[in-house]
């Protein structure tokens, strides 16, 4: 993968386990095209036309920005805490009915974790599990929960679907291992951010043609709209929940140095901060664990 960021450039570094991400931000000031008149109106300088601010659209954009930041933070937390070890599982909880209340999902999950801890370690014992829980809204309005979970003591961790379904008590569950070859962080961020094309169209979610991607799912080609699921999250909702033992990534400012491996992924995008300022963001991601395995 091509390196985009020049050596010596000032970058924000995010280190999480064997994963490193570098982010280079460059402000590019342009001439003003509009002038604010008051809290609700602005004038287009080229034409003199007075227009009204869309506060509803701004609130929606701000909500999407916050969710995008949460997506990135989720990816960092997963990289820092889950490595495909024997004490780790990926669990999905679903409801047998079309359960549409995100607050109920939160309450049911808290009770589930307490019951699971009792099942695993006995009544009265301290919490022996660490987890990251991510709620997933469906196009039909239902809620699911994805949980990355691990035993704190490092011992082997597995539980049959049927047994876990009894502990959950609300519907269906799936239990799977997190293999070392599974890039679960990027999968979760992509899968939980994207929405099937037909669902996005039925819900009248706005998207551009370049946001549509085609992927292979269980041997079949399906189309998804990148980032469309973000529109289904209520404003202000906590996108993911992490237990106290989940390690946070290390973030610091530095300058890019020579790196002995090539980035596994790199991209850049430009967005408008306000009427006068654009920002170019260049991102490079490095996976040192995968690089070491490739050399064996």
Contiguous uncertain segments of 5+ residues = none
| Biggest β-sheet description | 5 strands, antiparallel
Looking at the structure, what is the overall shape? globular
Strand content: 25-35%
Tell me how many strands there are.
16
What share of residues is helical? 25-40%
Estimate the mean pLDDT confidence.
Answer: 84
Distance between the termini: 20 Å
The tally of helices reads: 6
Q: Main sheet: which strands, in order across?
A: 14-1-2-16-15
The structural class is alpha+beta
Output the radius of gyration: 22 Å
Explain how this protein is built.
- The structure is a single chain.
- The protein is 27% helix and 33% strand.
- Helix 1 runs antiparallel to helix 4 (184-193).
- The two termini are 20 Å apart.
- The chain is globular, with a radius of gyration of 22 Å.
- Strand 1 and strand 2 (19-29) form a beta hairpin.
- It has 296 residues and is of the alpha+beta class.
- The model has no long low-confidence stretch (mean pLDDT 84).
- The chain has six helices and 16 strands.
- A five-stranded antiparallel β-sheet has the order 14-1-2-16-15. The chain has a five-stranded antiparallel β-sheet with strand order 9-6-8-7-13, sandwiched between helices. Strands 3-4-5 form a three-stranded antiparallel β-sheet, with no helix packed on it.
């Amino acid at each position: 993968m091509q390196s985009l960021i020049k050596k010596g450039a000032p970058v924000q570094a995010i280190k999480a386990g064997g994963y490193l991400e570098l982010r280079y931000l460059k402000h590019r000031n342009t001439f003003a095209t509009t002038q604010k008149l008051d809290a609700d109106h602005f004038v287009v300088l080229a034409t003199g036309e007075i227009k009204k601010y869309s506060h509803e659209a701004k609130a929606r954009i701000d909500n999407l920005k916050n969710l995008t930041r949460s997506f990135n933070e989720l990816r960092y937390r997963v990289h820092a805490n889950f490595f495909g070890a024997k004490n780790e599982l990926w669990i999905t909880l679903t409801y047998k009915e079309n359960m549409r209340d995100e607050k109920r999902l939160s309450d049911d999950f808290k009770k589930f974790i307490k019951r699971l801890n009792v099942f695993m370690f006995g009544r009265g014992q301290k919490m022996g599990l660490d987890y990251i829980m991510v709620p997933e809204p469906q196009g039909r309005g239902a809620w699911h929960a994805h949980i990355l979970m691990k035993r704190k003591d490092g011992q082997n961790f597995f539980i049959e679907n049927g047994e876990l379904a009894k502990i959950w008590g609300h519907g269906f569950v799936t239990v799977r291992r997190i293999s070392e070859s599974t890039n679960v962080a990027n999968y979760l961020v992509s899968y939980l951010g994207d929405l099937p094309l037909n669902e996005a169209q039925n819900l009248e979610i706005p998207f551009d043609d370049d946001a549509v991607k085609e992927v292979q799912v269980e041997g079949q080609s399906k189309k998804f709209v990148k980032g469309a699921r973000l529109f289904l999250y209520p404003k202000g909702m906590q996108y993911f929940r992490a237990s106290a033992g989940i390690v946070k990534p290390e973030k610091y400012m530095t300058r890019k140095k020579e790196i002995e491996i090539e980035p596994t992924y790199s991209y850049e995008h430009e967005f408008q901060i306000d009427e006068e300022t654009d920002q170019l963001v260049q991102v490079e991601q490095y996976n040192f664990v995968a690089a070491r395995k490739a050399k064996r």
